[in-house]
């Protein structure tokens, strides 16, 4: 009973905090503005934007898609959808148990799914490098073409308390931005060896629009600056991490 009251008080405190109110206001505005822009573009622009990707029918062997954070949410549905399209889906997650449960789940929806799971922590460069080595080895041992057709950097978190990675970065920035950056750089040779056009998809967020004074110093990009703050500005860090990822998208 005491714990229940404590949780209730904590929730009320969270809902009344400046951070939450800022998030409710700015994020709603960001989403509304993005929808307005999409609507405006659909009315006044006749340019059809298409993002062609390799179709399993045109690929000499089965095409491969690597997706991070596929054990739940958007990642899980994307993994399932791509498996139905005929992709060999490589799912990456932190927990062996969640990964095997995910494989069972996707197989339940699509018994023909070709899946392979790798355990890796996207917030750690060391873990991503180990994953890269295992992925290459697995590709060499299999009868698949030694390349990747789609990389989806989907794993992301919104952490409300500060955590530092073993490499000394803010956990949220490391997961949402540094990890995808390292993963992309590591898999670039495999994406470039694809006999058909390959794709990188970075899952960002409308909330990146809330960033007004983007700074690119080492302290901000690594998140170390935020770890020194008295109160962890989690909403701003999330926005920053997604803005950094958005800039990466623009550069590619
Ligand atoms: N949902 C939304 O409304 C929304 C809106 C805008 C943008 N997004 C973005 O869309 C992406 C997916 O969101 P979601 O709502 O589907 O998230 P979710 O259901 O919370 O799933 C997050 C996934 O990321 C994985 N993950 C988290 N930290 C990881 C780490 N260090 N290493 C490896 N995997 C890690 C988790 O896997 P494990 O726990 O198994 O490791 C999980 O599978 C995120 O990047 C999010 O920021 C979501």
From TrEMBL:
Keyword Oxidoreductase annotated: yes
Membrane-spanning parts: 12-33
Cited InterPro entries: NAD(P)-bd_dom_sf, SDR_fam
Family: Belongs to the short-chain dehydrogenases/reductases (SDR) family.
Gene3D superfamilies: NAD(P)-binding Rossmann-like Domain
Entry protein name: Rossmann-fold NAD(P)-binding domain protein
Highest taxon above the source species: Eukaryota
Key word Iron present: no
GO molecular function: oxidoreductase activity
Keywords per UniProt: Membrane, Oxidoreductase, Transmembrane, Transmembrane helix
Record-linked PANTHER family: RETINOL DEHYDROGENASE (PTHR24320), RETINOL DEHYDROGENASE 11 (PTHR24320:SF227)
